[in-house]
């Protein structure tokens, strides 16, 4: 039913539903996704890249509703496990619009991808070539791309940079590993190499690394043309488009990116006398990150000599990003209007370690107290998809809001779920 509640003073409404009402209805912690915002972001990408294939990177967050929304908005899917594949296909997503990634694909990943008929498989290491060819079998056919490493450093944190040679993904262009692997792929009649793939990293806020990646990959395409007479028809530039997590920060504008990539690609291909390849992009964070907000209740407020700690009912099990990458969020008080002066506080979680910090040194109203509701905006990407079972607290539910209605998409992990996974003593 549509929300009829009068918003309380200080309340924040998303998708026409007061957030405090969602917290009352589904409990906390809860993740709230604004369906229209997800869809709008898909449309922005489709408009910015009208000739390109836009794949949503499912690792940012996947559930059945997301699969439906992506299908309806005309996006494809970048998946990296049998789990993501299975969820998408059993929800009705066309497998040919999916691309399978992974630096270490399990036998189950490959078997599932081939059984379901995934569109393309991205080869990430030399040892995968023979394994995939054998799995496809003589007389079989599978489209593949090869993930190349352009030697470009970009991304919001060292742990999410994948464009440099000294990391685990892909095959280096400068060391010749990419060229070597491509020659071996060309020897496998059941593998059809359609193009190159290159994912630089994540939370990139400038178009420059993408421009450099276009030059580098087209350079490789030109050499492959000379050496093998090969004309590759696709270029997948990966994802990594940065977003703003706090007021005042800037993300990467998809329209500006599309514009620069188009110009650069046309010039590089003209210089190399190659046809312009069909472009593929794989945004994850930029589709779903800003459309999500995490809601928590404050359970305790504690003053120490150094700080004021505001402890909430979630933490690093539903959002490991501050602990992993030092990411900073801007939590806010929801559902109550406060006229108290702002105070500097540190918002922490409920987990059994001192590093369980959600937001260090942020401003909240000085009268913040147990029972208050806090919202952490920009929580749609890489929160729940990276959630853990730490301390057996159970993963939070996901609700969607649209046109004044809220509905549950993913239920809370219950004590029953936790108990029934154990099958032996
Ligand atoms: N394509 C490939 C091959 C990827 O590995 C990724 C992300 C993407 C696309 C999407 O990147 P996005 O547009 O979402 O930045 N857990 C980290 C982010 C790891 C990204 C891993 N790969 C975080 O919370 O910041």
Automatic annotation (TrEMBL):
The modification N6-(pyridoxal phosphate)lysine is found at residue 59. It holds the Pfam family Orn_Arg_deC_N. It catalyses: meso-2,6-diaminopimelate + H(+) = L-lysine + CO2. Substrate binds at residues 285, 321, 325, 353, 382. Its EC number is 4.1.1.20. Residues 36-289 form the Orn/DAP/Arg decarboxylase 2 N-terminal domain. This is Diaminopimelate decarboxylase. Specifically catalyzes the decarboxylation of meso-diaminopimelate (meso-DAP) to L-lysine. Homodimer. It is an enzyme of class 4 (lyase). Belongs to the Orn/Lys/Arg decarboxylase class-II family. LysA subfamily. SUPFAM superfamilies: Alanine racemase C-terminal domain-like, PLP-binding barrel. The keyword Lyase applies.
């Amino acid at each position: 039913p549509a929300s009829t509640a009068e918003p309380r003073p200080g309340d924040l409404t998303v998708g026409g539903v007061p957030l405090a009402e969602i917290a009352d209805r589904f409990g906390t912690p809860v993740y709230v996704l604004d369906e229209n915002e997800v869809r709008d972001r898909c449309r922005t990408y489709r408009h910015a890249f009208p000739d390109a294939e836009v794949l949503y990177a499912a690792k940012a967050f996947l559930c059945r509703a997301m699969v439906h929304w992506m299908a309806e908005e005309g996006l494809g899917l970048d998946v990296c496990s049998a789990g993501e594949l299975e969820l998408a296909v059993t929800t009705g997503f066309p497998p040919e619009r999916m691309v399978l990634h992974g630096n270490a694909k399990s036998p189950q990943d490959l078997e599932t991808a081939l059984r379901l008929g995934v569109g393309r498989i991205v080869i990430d290491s030399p040892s995968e070539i023979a394994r995939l060819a054998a799995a496809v079998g003589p007389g079989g056919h599978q489209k593949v791309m090869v993930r190349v490493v352009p030697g470009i450093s970009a991304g919001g944190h060292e742990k999410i940079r994948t464009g440099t040679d000294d990391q685990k993904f892909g095959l280096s262009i400068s060391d010749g590993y990419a060229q070597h692997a491509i020659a071996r792929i060309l020897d496998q009649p059941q593998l059809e190499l359609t193009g190159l793939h290159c994912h630089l990293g994540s939370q990139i806020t400038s178009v420059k690394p993408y421009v450099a990646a276009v030059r580098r990959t087209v350079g490789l395409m030109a050499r492959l043309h000379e050496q093998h007479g090969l004309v590759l028809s696709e270029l997948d530039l990966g994802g990594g488009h940065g977003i703003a997590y706090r007021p005042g920060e800037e993300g990467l504008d998809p329209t500006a990116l599309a514009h620069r990539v188009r110009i650069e690609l046309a010039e590089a291909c003209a210089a190399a006398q190659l046809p312009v390849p069909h472009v593929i992009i794989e945004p994850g964070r930029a589709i779903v990150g800003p459309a999500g907000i995490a809601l928590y209740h404050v359970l305790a407020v504690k003053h120490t000599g150094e700080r004021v700690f505001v402890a909430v009912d979630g933490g690093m099990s539903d959002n490991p990003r501050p602990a992993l990458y030092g990411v900073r969020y801007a939590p806010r008080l929801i559902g109550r209007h406060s006229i108290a002066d702002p105070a500097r506080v540190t918002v922490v979680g409920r987990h059994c370690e001192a590093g369980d910090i959600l937001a260090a040194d942020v401003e909240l109203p000085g009268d913040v107290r147990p029972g208050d509701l806090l919202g952490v905006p920009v929580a749609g990407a890489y929160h729940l998809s990276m959630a853990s079972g730490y301390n057996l607290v159970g993963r939070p539910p996901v609700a969607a809001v649209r046109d004044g209605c809220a509905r549950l998409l993913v239920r809370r992990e219950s004590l029953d779920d936790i108990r029934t996974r154990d099958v032996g003593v």
